[in-house]
């Protein structure tokens, strides 16, 4: 009798499991969710990273983040389910992206690539972006913080000038802005030497082909002018116009009165805006108070800015002011310039109302 009772209970339990609709629904949902999760993981983390050929280079910029990197891959249709990749990174990859050039081989999964670029030791080459208009101080800071660069010369100007055998007393403007690729382990001295030699070649070539009757005594003065032009406009079509304004002002004995030189002269005291007091305070770089050019460049000028300094436009403009909508308004006399200034202020006032 006890055995019969036990069998009856077992049958009852099995019947409950097989016939209870809630249990069956839960089981089906669990299986479906597991299959969906497996599919998503296979299509995202464990899918092959798209590679053309057997291998290709993957460039990671300095300051890049995983979130932006994954979004870019998704926008290019190289990965699926970007949210899954971001969640995986958050919980399983503790380090940030490391700048450099990485080698991605055919057959590597997206997960393997995400983990690889978190370790600078995996980089094959180093990518350094030197932006036109930035300063030599910013360049040296970039090199100093880069883990793939071996440091030899440090950040002191005197040491760098001596190590690179530079015939000038100031480093500003002497290095060519561009995107450069270097082997891992390259020294800062090698990188700076390369950038310096490129800039000098650009300057020498442009100086040989310069227009006649320019107000520069030396090619170094032309480099100073190029750095000012670089800081005044980011519109390529305006480079020669800005150059023309400053060249004509020099020839007429007018002061350049350009804000970027004031900012450079202020150094760390500059906090984002220029006061009237700053414009009146004499420094070696304040072109509102000094005649002619400042003593050195104020930034790293591009090849386009250097060429503009050598080939200014031939108009009559001696003033310019921002339009407020991108670009500048160039004027031949003070009356025209004052009207342009009023128009600029009106645009700013309208934008302030809208915001």
From TrEMBL:
Q: Where are the transmembrane segments?
A: 21-41
Q: Which HAMAP family does this chain map to?
A: MltG
A GO biological-process term: peptidoglycan biosynthetic process
Role according to the record: Functions as a peptidoglycan terminase that cleaves nascent peptidoglycan strands endolytically to terminate their elongation.
Region forming the signal peptide: none
Organism source for this protein?
Acinetobacter rudis
Listed name of the protein: Endolytic murein transglycosylase
How does the protein's chain sit in the membrane according to the entry? Single-pass membrane protein
Q: Which domain of life is it from?
A: Bacteria
Q: Which UniProt keywords apply?
A: Cell inner membrane, Cell membrane, Cell wall biogenesis/degradation, Lyase, Membrane, Transmembrane, Transmembrane helix
